Amino acid sequence: MAGNQTLQTADFQPIPLDICVTRGDSPIIPFKLTTPAGADIDISGGTFTLTVNTEEDPTDNTNQVFQVTGVLVGGGTTGEFTMQPTTGNTGALNPDLDYFYDLRMVLASYGDRTIFKGKWLVDQDINKDA
User: Fold this and answer.
1) pLDDT by residue (tens digit) across 38-50?
2) What is the DSSP string of 18-75?
């Protein structure tokens, strides 16, 4: 799962991070961006988009499964935001298949860049109430 992830301002490669969700759940996935020295990054006015795809390196959005827009926590001054896929997003996933994601940030002081990338892992749910 995600957590306090450090955004390396001098390293423009995405931070590798696998995220595991249970099929049919809608977890709030927290992120907190800090400088290498541990200071909060002000992400006020920034936008964050998490996209899940069946291809690791897609050339277009043909196999895009879903996309989620981030929500800034406390206005973004503490570098915190969350992502929350819906039960519909995760309920349509097959635990036997491979999925991949990237998380894109658009922020005036950092530009338009992919900040996290990895596998989107899906555990089979047991509860079938939903």
Assistant:
1) 888 999 999 999 9
2) -EEEETT----EEEEEE-TTSPBP--TT-EEEEEEESSSS-SSSTTEEEEEE-EESGG
